[in-house]
Amino acid sequence: MKTVSSLLNDEWYERYKRISKLNIRSSIYDTTNRCNLRCKGCFFFSSGEDKAAREETDIHKWERFIDKETERGVNLAILIGGEPTLYLDRVEAFYQRLPTFCASNGLIKVPRDRFPDMMIGLSLWGDENDEKLLRGKDAFSISSKNYEGDPHTYYLYTITPKQIGKTDRIVRKIRDAGLKIHMQLLSNDEGVDGFSWEPKELSEIRREMDEMLEQYPETVISSKYYHKIITTGEMLGRRFGWMECPSVTEQFDNRNPRPKRLIHFIRWASDLKTMHRCCTSNTRDCSTCKDGAAHMSWVMVNKRAHMRSTEDLQNWIEVYEMFAKLYQFIPW
Ligand code: SF4
Ligand code: SF4
Q: What is the residue with the minimal CA distance to atom 5 of ligand 1?
């Protein structure tokens, strides 16, 4: 039988040991149903998840709930919404209790005296024109001023088909703002004309993502294997979709056979009682899902399958390291 140590040289084995200790247990929390933007293609609003539950407003109930989540073994809280920064008291309740990642559109600056090292992922939906079209505003011009040079912030760049040939300019803008960038692909949940992916476009953007990583390794947090997985939807000959997705709320997981999955993962609505099906929307067609975190996690939970060759295991390590960097378990 192949073992990890027989597949890796000393350097890779050290890298493996560093991540194998982490034992990350994440869950996702809708911090609020409100947002100060309304982006076309936002899975939260387009699927009606903002109406699925009445928002809990009592901060003490949030605090008690988070304490129970830590008892449940969660060691990474991923705050989404809606826009979490509209309710900094809720964000603080998480931050004081467990490692916390806050997704944000960046229009409101999180005060660093209150949240000195909280990782913030700023959403970016393309260049100025795309952002104006899809989000009604050039959010980057505001968010980049708010977070310039911040060591605990990166841009989560959702690439659309319209971005082919333009990513270099975006990456340079982010590098010049002293920030990092991670890339994923738009799933186009609201069917905006011209924003759905064709196979040829997916192979073009894969090549471009690889080039960005090669050219800007200090700025781009990614791996070529991740680019391959997210653009092809395939891993080791298996196809991504409902029967493979790792990011399904445990209580909704009626799959048989049950695939490898995130342990005890739940996506909670803002009433702290309702659960959503998965890390994106209840209504998304899994066969079109391009969610970056779900694809990353898909690789991560399938370590054993990657132990068939040195190259496969190294690919697995790179994806795991990428995730660990993005959620601040290891340095950039
Ligand atoms: S900023 Fe985020 S939560 Fe708000 S509408 Fe846009 S995608 Fe949705
Ligand atoms: S929509 Fe995406 S994240 Fe949700 S269950 Fe389907 S494949 Fe998984």
A: 38
